[in-house]
Here is the input.
Amino acid sequence: MIEAEGPTRRPGHVRRLQEELSELDRSPLHSIEDPGPFLEELSYAVRPRVHERRIPSFGAIVQAGLDSELWERDTGISVAHRGVEDLDDPVARLFADGVSSFVVRGRDGINDLVVFDRSVGSERDLTIVAEAARATVIQRHPSGVVRAAGAFGVLRLIGFDWQLEPPVARWLDIADCVIEPHSYEIMQDLLRFAIHDVAARHVGATFVISRDGVLNGSVERRFGRPPAFRIGRPSDLAPLYHVLGQMDGAAVFDHNGTLRELGVRLIPSPRAEEVVGAYRGTRHTSALRYSHDDPAARLIVVSEDGPVSVMRAGNRLGHSGMRGTPQ
Here is the structure.
């Protein structure tokens, strides 16, 4: 019989975890109605049950506010339920790999195990599932990274410290960034990709979004036309991320979210260099000055050390304070 080695046997660790999170600016605990279940499952993710020196991955969806049929509608991911009502919580957790299977935790304990028809192990996927389920999603990734996504944003354990990436809405008005009314979701998807796929893995990148993918500033094109990857198509994101980590220059998208060009060198005009000051490093400065020359374009810039900036017409519209190296 498997002993209850879960959080209920470690009240001291749960208490210390609560203290650590309470010390963060805009603590995630403030946005959780009943933080007890969240803290217990997060505690288990930090210190899961070890078997034969193997530290397992883990995933939990805490206090879901909607039926899973609505998750499917909003995520495009099929959800299958596997009954665990006859199992104690410590045993039920052993089935949750945090990539395609997650326990569902309520106030009184674990009441379900859900299995998705594809991997939802990326940070971006976690934010999408959390939003669709109106829940908090906790994960210990197979790489060992521990994080949680919810209304508070994304919480990450980096070394021994917790770091909180707030929701985009707290630092950027997305409506100010769109080119056409229907492109709101496109910009939202691009920002998710930039923050939770690219920046979270320490890859620097520049995205230019323009009507029909047309660039009106001075540029140098060094590659041919790339595949027409769509930012709203999940299967396209892995190869897109893969290529971004292997070349410099900007990736250009049209207002419908289709990739039009890659590796484009942005060349600011002498006037832009005169009137737009330097900002952060070379990548940010070049993009900010180019945006002065091409005011109809929107630019998203990702630093290798994490922060993401959004620019238009020589102005910075918003900037995240992200740090860390999750996988």
